[in-house]
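Researcher: For the annotation table, I need structure tokens for Regulator of sirC expression, contains transglutaminase-like and TPR domains. Please keep the output clean. Sequence:
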Amino acid sequence: MNPRQHCLDCLQRTPPSTFDAALWISVEHDATVDPQTTQELIAQLQRRISASLPLLPAAELAQPLLRQMATIGFQQDDVAQPKPQVALLHRVVERRRGQPLGLAMVALELARRMEIPLEGVNFPGHFLLRVPGADHTLDPCDGRRLYPKDCRELLLRQFGPDMPLKSEHMRTATPQAMLQRLSRNLRHLHQINDDLLSSLKDATRVMELGPGNASDYLARASLYQNLECPQAERFDLEHALLLSDDPVQRIRLTQRLVQLPSGQAIH
């Protein structure tokens, strides 16, 4: 199997292996990556952190786990011009730096190995964690508790006052949702670093992991436009048009489709 097939196969396990699937995404971008090496690093981290955790019931160890991760150097990488390494999971483990989603994936894998109940929350703009049934979430970057007021402030800082907190923002993230989000992050990171072919891999993986939305098809259409593949661009624009509920966007998409050249493209 190729790395993409390995990634998708990990999701068919019972239970799904989200961490393993994310490592195969790393392999897809760098054939020299050895998932077993990263697994060994995780095992070392597990032993080190486990020895430092307080003697509490497992349900009370999620926040101490995150705080121990922060103590040994895991933190958000918030450089102005981020590289794909802030999202590629093997690099997050090696560098102990990454986006909130990458840090959360490491924490979830450690929690799974130590039988600590913990789940992902697909919060917009900043992935969060939660102990199932708790009245608060946890910031994967430092273990800070976040209550609804704190979550509203997060939205305000990242999206402005026009985005209210909704119940859908607090939904538990499925393995597929986490890997789709990871793929969208990588799509963006590769694109802003001028690696369009890698970005295209990520954009296509988004669609294979689950149904794409209008923004997903638009993002891939833009990549095809830059790669001068008009027929593939047309395919994605047509799908974006079908999925879009925005009248203004629909008009713009229709105009863009009319302006596309006819003929076959090589891709």
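Researcher: And a one-line annotation?
Model: The first strand starts at residue 75 and ends at 76.
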